[in-house]
Amino acid sequence: SQQGEEDPQALSIQEGENATMNCSYKTSINNLQWYRQNSGRGLVHLILIRSNEREKHSGRLRVTLDTSKKSSSLLITASRAADTASYFCATDYTGTASKLTFGTGTRLQVTL
Amino acid sequence: EAQVTQNPRYLITVTGKKLTVTCSQNMNHEYMSWYRQDPGLGLRQIYYSMNVEVTDKGDVPEGYKVSRKEKRNFPLILESPSPNQTSLYFCASRAGLTDTQYFGPGTRLTVL
């Protein structure tokens, strides 16, 4: 079963707006990672947040982690058309070896 | 340039014809994994390796084999491919158990 579940499944916004994607998971984690994937291409690592961190920033990206609610959010500020992609959260949960469990992703469409 | 490479990038084959997808990383990473990505199912781990000669099953190992004879290489072997193995395959590597995972560009496999 999927560990991370993203919400919404699809999001359409206009350039300049902010986009927020959420991820929920089920068991204790070491860290949570967000990836971007352009259609049918490889996954690009965006940001990693560890279980003892609550918020992290990278450029226009802001990630929060709430371990009590087992949830994370990814905020992209001032979105651009080039941000159009699918975004996945991946959980690295405790007690296992070298496994990231991915959700099914949020498809973000940024229009001009 | 630090990277994970996969070959071939695209492959069309027929049922039962053995094939190998190669994966190589130049970052001296201990951990390597194979994933498959299917619509609506996200990425699922096939096999992983924690070091040379150490491999273990992921979530969907049936019909696949792997080997780790050298640290940098982690080939995926389909002894007798079937149409349900038509998918997009990704190799990944990371330095430590809870570190960022870097993905290759993907191999799109079609089994007729």
Overview of the structural elements:
- The complex is a heterodimer of chains A (112) and B (112).
- Chain A has no helices and eleven strands.
- Chain A has strands at residues 5-7, 10-14, 19-24, 29-37, 43-50, 55-58, 61-66, 71-76, 85-93, 101-102, 106-111.
- The termini of chain A are far apart.
- Chain B has 112 residues and is mainly beta.
- Helices cover 0% and strands 51% of the residues of chain B.
- In chain B, the strands form two sheets. In chain B, strands 2, 4, 5, 6, 9, 10 and 11 form a seven-stranded mixed sheet that branches.
- The mean pLDDT of chain B is 94.
- The A-B interface holds A 2, 30-31, 33, 35, 40-45, 48, 50, 88, 90, 92, 97-105 and B 31-33, 35, 40-45, 48-50, 56, 58, 88, 90, 92, 94, 97-106, 108.
In short:
The complex is a heterodimer of chains A (112) and B (112). In chain A, strands 2, 4, 5, 9, 10 and 11 form a six-stranded mixed beta sheet that branches. In chain A, 0% of the residues lie in helices and 57% in strands.
Question: Pairing-aware structural class of the strands and helices of chain A?
Answer: mainly beta
Mean pLDDT of chain B: 94
The portion of residues assigned to helices of chain A is: under 10%
**Largest interface chains and counts:** A-B, 25 and 30 residues
Outline of chain B, from the CA principal axes? globular
Number of strands of chain B: 11
Largest sheet of chain A: 6 strands, mixed
Sheet with the most strands, sense and barrel status of chain B: 7 strands, mixed
Order of helices and strands of chain B: EEEEEEEEEEE
Radius of gyration based on Cα positions of chain B: 13 Å
Give the N-terminus to C-terminus distance of chain A in angstroms: 37 Å
Number of H/I helices of chain B:
0
Distance between the termini of chain B: 36 Å
Mean pLDDT of chain A: 90
Which structural class matches the secondary elements of chain B? mainly beta
Which regions of chain A contain 5 or more consecutive residues with pLDDT less than 50? none
Number of strands of chain A: 11
Number of H/I helices of chain A:
0
